[in-house]
Every structure is written in C-alpha cells, then in structure tokens.
Amino acid sequence: MSATRQICTFLLGENLFGLDVNCVLEVIRTQPVTKVPLAPEAVYGLINLRGQIVTAIDLRRRLDLAVPAEDHPLKMSIIIKTPDGPLCFPIDDVGDVIEVSQDLLEPAPDTMTSNARKMIDSVCKLSSQLLVILRSDFSVLAGV
Amino acid sequence: MKALALQLLPSAYHGCTAALPMTDPLQEFFIESLENLEQYDAGLLVLEKNPDSPKVISSIFRTLHTIKGTCGFLALHKLEAIAHAGENLLALVRDGSIPFTRSIASALLATGDAIRSIISELENTQKEGDGDYSALIERLVQLQKPEASPSQHLPAPSAAGPETDQSVAEAELPIESKALEGTIRVHVETLDTLMNLVGELVLTRNQITQFSVAQNSAPLQSAAQRLSQLTSELQDRMMKTRVQPIDTLWSKIPRTLRDLAELCHKKVRLRTEGGETELDRTVLDAIKDPLTHLLRNSVDHGIETPEVRIAAGKPPEGTISLRAFHAAGLVTIEIVDDGGGINLDRVKARALERRLITQDIADQMSERDLINLIFLPGFSTADKVSLVSGRGVGMDVVKTQIEKIGGIVEMTSTFGKGTTCRIKIPLTLAIIPVVIIGCCGERFAIPQSNLLEVIRIDQNLVIEHVRDVPVARLRGNLLPVVHLKDTLKLAPVSPPTLQHLAILNVGARQFGLVVDSIHEAEEVVVKPIGRALISLACFAGSTILRDGRISLILDVFGIGSQANLLQSNTQSAANVKPVDASAEKSTDHSDLKELLVFQVGGTRAAVPLEFVHRLEEFPRQDIEHCAGKCVIQYGHEILPLIFLAKVMGLPETMADASIFQTIIYHHNGHPLGLVIEAVEMIVKEKLETRTTGKRTGVMGSAVIGKRVTELVDVEEIIRIYAPEFSEVYA
C-alpha cells in the first residue's frame, strides 16, 4: 500500500488539472475582476477577497493552453494559499477531490515546453484520462 | 465532471494570512535578545560619557548574562562563548576592578554586533554560521588585564561635562520601563489582518446603512446608526494600533553617530526632542534610510573637526539635534547641526561647472534656490564639493524617497553657523485622501497630495502639440501633457464627450494627465498591489472603494517616467528651471528677452537676439565644402554653415532652394551661419521656458506671440555639430 495524496481537481477547457488539497483555501464564484493595465497577459486581474486584494492568474495563458477567441467568462475560481500569499485562478469548473496513489504519478514528459513544465508537479494516470497536478508555488504559478 | 462544492472553512483562510504565534522558544529568544541588545548599545554609550553609573552597568550586564544563560540552555555554544567573555569583562568593570575605557566600550559594542550577526545567521539558516570570533574573545580577555590600555581612561564626569549628567543619562535609558507592564506583543501581520477585516466591516456597514434607509423602519435605522458609529470608532482605534513613537527609530541613532564620528575623527553629541511623536510604522520604515543619510551628511560634511571648531570659536564637540513634532496634520522632523553650513558660492560654482545652470540663471537665484541645487541629481556626484562644503552626496535620493511618501524636504543653512534640514511627512501611509478618476471605463485613484487642480478640456484649454509631444497652456505656461489612455494602453471605449486635465506635481515638476471623468474624493485604505504585480511602476498600490470594487492607485512618479517625462537631464539649463523655481516664483527667473523668431523645417523657433549679428541671404552656388562641412566666404572670414532643420531633425524644406536665409550668429565673438527658412519677427518677451521632452538642439518651448515656439540651444548645436569650431576659437 503506497502513500496517497489528496488532489482537488478542476477543468480548464477540456483539460483536467489538480492542486494539492492542502494548499487550496476555497473555491468561489469568480468575483468582479479589476483589470490591471500594463500587467503581463497572464494576469487576469485583481479580486477583493474579504478585504484582501488577491491577484488572479489566467492559468490557460501560463500553461500555453488555447484561449478561445470569443473568450467566455471563467465562472469559478480556486483560491490557493502559499507562503508568499494567496493566489486566485479563474477556472471553468471545479471537480472532485480525489485520492491518488503515488504509484500513479509520473513526471511531466521531457518534450513539454519548459515554461509549462516548470509548473507541473506530476502527471497522474487516471483510468479515464490524465490529470496534470500543478505545483503550489507562488512564483512558479504567477510567473514572477 | 460535475461541479462539486469544496467546503473549506473561511477561518482556514485567515489562519494562513495571520502570523504564526511565536511559540518557538528560539524565535522568542531572538526577538528578546535583539531588543535587549538595543538597550545594551545605548547603555554602553551612556557609560562611555559617564562611566560611573552602576545602574546602567548592571542593566547591560544583565543583557549579556541572559543571553549567555539562554544560549547554554539552547546549546548555542559559539554565542555562549562570546557572551561569556563579554560578561567576564563587564563583571570586572562592575566590581570596579578595572576602569571603563573607550577600548572596552568598543570591544563590548563589537560583542553586541557579533551576537546580532550570529542571531541573524541562526534565523536564516538555523545554524550559528562559520564566523570566527576568537579574535574578539581574545580582545575581551586581554582587556580584563588592568594595564591593557591605561592611556585611554575616560575622564571622570566633571562639572564641565555638558548635558549628560548622570540623572539625564539614566533617565534616557529605558531600563525595564513600567509602561511595559500590561502590554502584549502582537505581530504586525495580525494587526494588518485586523485592519483588512475592519475595512470590510466598513463596506458592509455602508451597505446596511443603504438598506436601512430603503426599509424606512425606525428601529433598524437607529441600529444601523449605532453600527455606523461603532465601526468608525473601531477603524480609528485600529489605525492607532499601528503607530509607533519615532523613538523606536531614534534609539538606534546614537550608535550610528558614534561610529560615524569616530570614522571622521570628529566629536558629535546628539540631542533629541519629541521622540514620543507617533508615526505609522510604514512611514517610520520609509524615513529610516533618508534620515540616516542626512545624519551621515551632517557628521561628514556639516560638523567640522575639533581643531577647526575651536578656531572658529565653537565648542570642540559638534551638536546634532533631532526634533519631531506634529504640525498642520503632518509630522515635522528637523535635523539641526551647528557645523560649517553650506557655502553657497561653492554650490553655485560647482553647479556652473557641471553645467546644471547657466551664469544668467545663477545670478538671479535666491539663496533658497541655490540651496535647492544640492537636490539635483547631477550634483550628488560632486565629490570635491562634498568634502569642502557641500552636502551633495545622494541628496537627490533623500528627496525622492521623502517625496515618494508624500513628504517634502527643506534645507536652510547659514554659512559658518550650521544647517537645518526639515522633513515634513504624513502621519500615515495606510489611509490617504484620493480623487477617483475614470478613463476608458476603468476607475483609478490619484493621491490628492499629487493633484494640484483639475481643468475641463474645452475651447479655453486645448491640447496642442510641439511636434508630436502634447502640451497645454496653463496661465501662460506650457505644461507637458500625458494621456492616461496611452500610458496605460487602455482599450478605448466610445470616445468620451468630455475630458479633463488633471494637473499633477511630481516633486517640483508638473504635468497634465488627460482623463475622461472625475468622480468623488475619498479617503482610502492603501493596500499592496501584490507580489505578482510589484514590477508595475505606474501603480502605487490598490484600494477597495465604497462599493467593494478594487481601484488601482496611480503612482504619479511612475506615470511620469513611463511617459518619458521625468528623465533627469543635467545638460540642459532649461531643465533646471522647473526644479528650482516654484510656480509662483518662476517669473522672477525669466526676464524680458529679445528673440528672433523664424521658421525652420515647418516649425517655429527662436534664438536670443543678443547673439544674432546680422541676417544674410546666400545664393546656393556660393556654398563651398571644406573638411566635410558647408562653409561660405563671408568678408575676410570663412563662415561655417549649420543647417538648423537638419540638426534639429526637422524636415529639410530648404533642400532645393536657390537662396539660403542665414542668421549670422556670434559665438565667442566669431561668426557662424545658421541656415533657416524665413525670418518671422523680433519680439521682446518674458520667457517662460518649459521642457517638453529632450531633443537635440532644443532648450525647451515657450509661448511667443500666442504660439508655441521652440527655443534653439545654439551652444549645444555648436558643441555637437561644430566642435572643432568651438575649440579653435574658444
């Protein structure tokens, strides 16, 4: 019996991603976002989380995923906590919290672009599809 | 995959932002030791002046003893050894076996520094580090022998000893102040979190108040009113928890000063007044560096050496006084020294030498304007003047830092008597008054401290262009204009029917910012913009408005530099003017000047008439080429020709003309031809030069005859395009 990890899963387009459940603070409906002029493209904006201003990062742009030309609003947001402060990721939908065994985890394929590769903790071979687990690191995810 | 709500308690979120409680005994030891070491340093300095104060000795002895004891308990052997050696030495002093000397003081101060560096090492790496302190321990042991340094005995406190008699000394040393009873240590982050929550409470209060008005129910309204009062008071009290007396900053100064004075071989004593003045801790953090810098200047350049002082009839020991007080909603901090003062003639000479000002301007400058020259960026590198009389080192940095937090720096000086530097800063950075403006459907906040006025853009105020640089005329002055829409690259919405020009000041410079709409003025709580966006210089922070929406606070410095407005340019004399001439005084510096106005490359330009020798027309075929330059025979001389349109980067409309209009310009008494398009007129105007972006050969722009005219910088053109000419004849 190998060790297991609890992963909070979510959808960006058709892609299934996961974050360690221990770093996930909450999942909320996406709040009104204040755009930040001159900010990098991946910065979605700023949200007001009970008086704290949290930067929202568009993971699709950080992970080089296709962003539809007619972009639809991302209606849910995952808030994570990191030692460097919280971050908000607008997502399409939140999934289950699943328990995955360490055996099922593999590193990201070598052929991935280096930018996205840095953000990936491991890839989990679920029976139905692959789950990409992201690193819960402020700098890596926010790209600073 | 269906959405599945992930329930996490909100409290978990607060848990992550609030500081960890200080349960770690190691952490507690660090904080306590560092605090004690501050008193330890202060105590040693008192002892140095006044070796015979048993209370102070036992206080610093206790500090070392506690550190030693705790180290043994925590198995920190290196630290223990150092503290032990120091303690042994102090024990002898305490028992009166050896006298307290300057070298003992230095060794014990070094002990404190060593303990500090080990502690910081421990905090960062959990290890004591590989620093070798055996030399220090050896020194401490050596000093325990009574004959170690007989020559350096400090004098017993005599009646002549100035302000530090024993009672003062001991009163100044906060030995286990009674005020500490009934206080607890709270981490600053905890307070910040509470501030956030109070801010949210205020928003909720506002919503409730709105509902209660709509509900038209008396009990609800009275409850809402009470909620409103309580919330306001809570917010007030919360703000006050973040203030600290300025003494927390000042307590470290005596040590700095001692080291500095020793380094410069000077004698300095410090007086402080108003140390209880309270300031927000963010402000305290922000003024720490500028204050240290000013003190360093005072010791290094202000206070003279004892010999010089005696010769000047002053006491050998210089005095630096620090004063802090509240006035007009601001905190004023004064740094006064009784040193040599600023030699204005040297300042003027240096500024001329470095081409920061021209002789003309220099002659008209008031004393105050001259002192302000030392705040110019170019001045700071003047190492010579700083040794003799100046104060130049990094004063521009001090000024920038203070202005960044909405403060101002003033300097007054009497040559030979001393210098006073006055810093005025806001009480808090956490809450600032702002004006909310709208642009392209977004809202931004501009700090009121940067906002001078707002003018509607209509037929009375139009945006004109000097080439492609937008400017506006404001009461006869030319003001560079920046479009917020362009600077922030905002996505355009439908063109606004009405636009406004916000006049902003950055230091002593001004510029206009074109925005769409002006909303209300508000007092807002400034929040950091977040680590991910910290690199954006255009924003000073963010805030949450009354309706709960986030608004970005514009950084006027950042906007200005983003628009290339604030490039400091030390070459052009015109650039100095906006710096030293405050708005109401600017007319004093500009005089009635005769100008020759002409057309060149489709632009209107002007040169001072006094240098214009005559106006000539030359046929094209008379132009000859010599050493790659265009020249023409003129009387007995060879006249070099400079095509103004070309050097100013303007379209060369004259390329195929058969006759060249030429201004014969006298440079150092020798003629030079400036080829132009057509002479327009000669005017006598009061010149109000405005810099509107630096271009070659242009000093600035001015309104002449109600039209924008560029002032040609002939000296610069000659320097660049005919250097051999200026060298040969000069």
**Mean pLDDT over the full residue set of chain A:** 89
Radius of gyration of chain B: 33 Å
Averaging pLDDT over every residue of chain B, what do you get?
Answer: 76
Strand order of the largest sheet of chain B: 10-14-15-13-12-11
Query: What is the molecular shape of chain B?
Result: globular
**Main sheet of chain B?**
6 strands, mixed
Question: How much is the radius of gyration of chain A in Å?
Answer: 15 Å
- Assembly type of the chains comes to heterodimer
Strand tally of chain A: 11
Explain what this protein looks like in three dimensions.
The complex is a heterodimer of chains A (about 140) and B (about 725). Chain A is mainly beta and about 140 residues long. Helices cover about 10% and strands about 45% of the residues of chain A. Chain A has helices spanning about 60, 115-120, 140; strands spanning about 5-10, 15-20, 25-30, 45-50, 50-55, 75-80, 85-90, 95-100, 105, 120-125, 130-135. With about 725 residues, chain B is α+β, with helices and mostly antiparallel strands. In chain B, helix 3 (about 55-75) runs antiparallel to helix 4 (about 75-95) and helix 8 runs antiparallel to helix 9. Chain B has a six-stranded mixed sheet with strand order 10-14-15-13-12-11. In chain B, strands 21-25-26-24-23-22 form a six-stranded mixed sheet. Chain B contains 25 helices and 29 strands. The longest helix of chain B is centred in the N-terminal third of the chain and has 28 residues, at about 190-215. The chains are: A mainly beta (about 140), B alpha+beta (about 725).
Descriptive labels:
heterodimer; A: 144 residues; mainly beta; 3 helices; 46% strand; globular; B: 730 residues; alpha+beta; six-stranded mixed β-sheet; disordered N terminus
